[in-house]
Amino acid sequence: MENGLISVDRWAEGSHVYFLTHLHSDHTQGLTSSWSHGPLFCSRLTAKLLPFKFPNFDLSLLRILEIGTSHTLSLPSPSSSSSRTTIQVTAIDACHCPGSVMLLFRGEFGCVLHTGDFRWEHTCEKARKAKDMLRCALKDDGDGVDVLYIDNTYSNPTYDFPTRKVAAQQVIDIISSHPDHDIIIGINTLGKEDLLLQISRVLKIKIWVWPERLQTMHLLGFLDIFTTNTTLTRVRAVPQYSFSIETLEALNTMRPTIGIMPSGLPWVKKPLQKSELLSGSFLTSRYKRGRWSANNEVQIDKQIGNIEPLEKIHQYIYSVPYSDHSNFAEIEDFIKLVQPTSLKGIVSSSSCYIEPMYYFGRLCRVNQPIQQLHNTHKRKESGKRVGAVSTKTSFGGDNAESDRKRGKTLKAKFSGVRVSRLSILRKRHRGAKIKEINSPDHD
Ligand SMILES: [Zn+2]
């Protein structure tokens, strides 16, 4: 994140300290049992699970970040071999999978928030507490967040799906309506535990998991709900890689079986038209809150009548929109809460990747003219480098021009040049907020 100083979910040599937001494999690429590039900071639960994923890992490298506590670290300064620099870091529950945290950093580089993967739902008590914690942590720094690294997995308005509680009920309904079927649910090596717990509690049934997953469940403290004995239950949670049409077809030659795939991905409305991207009212007219009511009952909205609440994607397979990542509206709410100066997406390989500033730049503290964003988007589409454009364009108009005319050189000590540049520019532009960003509807 800051070259020579901090790495978050990146494991190449060259940083003084390393941070792990959570243990999903796309965040641990390069991390191995023999990795030893420096101290590794993570949540207590992640530290407990890590040796299971990486046997023989050097545990003396692990440093625990207590949730909600500000930790101060003194590190050699990357800009000078003789001096040191101090950073503060606070971990906050990301409500994504067990042990997942977002990380709030402060240092000479400014204030930087890295969400890791996260999902904060309106109806989730844990998310409410985490939000309060973040508000509290942000109060300590009147200047606010300079750069927000955000989980942009679903940062596109086409991704709209209900809360995990609602989706879990949909899974339960499918299972209940197939009383004579075996059920296969595709899951990852970590995550979706709450879904399985809810199924077990409501249907009063144990859940089969594979042996390694049972060990993880035991580490997480779930001792009686899961089993590796297939005779004890008709509901089996299997690794996603073994969940396929072929598997389901083979199983159905022996016993009637249906598969359920919990994921946010199939919950797509329809491709956006380009003209809609420029419509200022697009987001508010189609993505009003309250579609999923406070008591979690689906409110049928004529505007979204084209969405089927459940999707049977194959004779034997249901897709249910149970997602551990925020949907578009939740990402939008989060950005309104944080009001960063600049945004960067942490997911770049997603097929739906879109520069987060494109949709959310208007929520940053320095307004982003929509036409400029559209131009930025087009530049990206045409394959030209955007790089720092996300911050550069955010200042837009006369002020950026006058800065250039005055020949101001806004350099920083670290390679995170933009951070310090942003801090300086932000101070000049203080007060240039969008008025509606504090709408109480979104708190
Ligand atoms: Zn993840």
Folded structure, characterized:
The protein is of the alpha/beta class. Helices cover 30% and strands 18% of the residues. The protein has 14 helices and 17 strands. The protein is globular and about 70 Å long. The model is unreliable at 267-309 and 368-443 (pLDDT under 50). Bound molecules: zinc ion. Zinc ion (ZN) is lined by residues 22, 24, 96-97, 117.
Class derived from helix and strand content: alpha/beta
What portion of the residues fall into strands of 2 or more residues?
Answer: 15-25%
The Rg value, from CA coordinates, equals 23 Å
Number of strands: 17
First-to-last CA distance: 29 Å
Unreliable segments (pLDDT under 50, ≥5 consecutive)? 267-309, 368-443
Please, what is the average pLDDT? 76
Which overall shape is indicated by the principal axes computed on the Cα atoms?
A: globular
Helix share, percent: 25-40%
Enumerate the distinct ligands. zinc ion
| Major beta sheet, strand line-up | 5-6-7-8-9-17
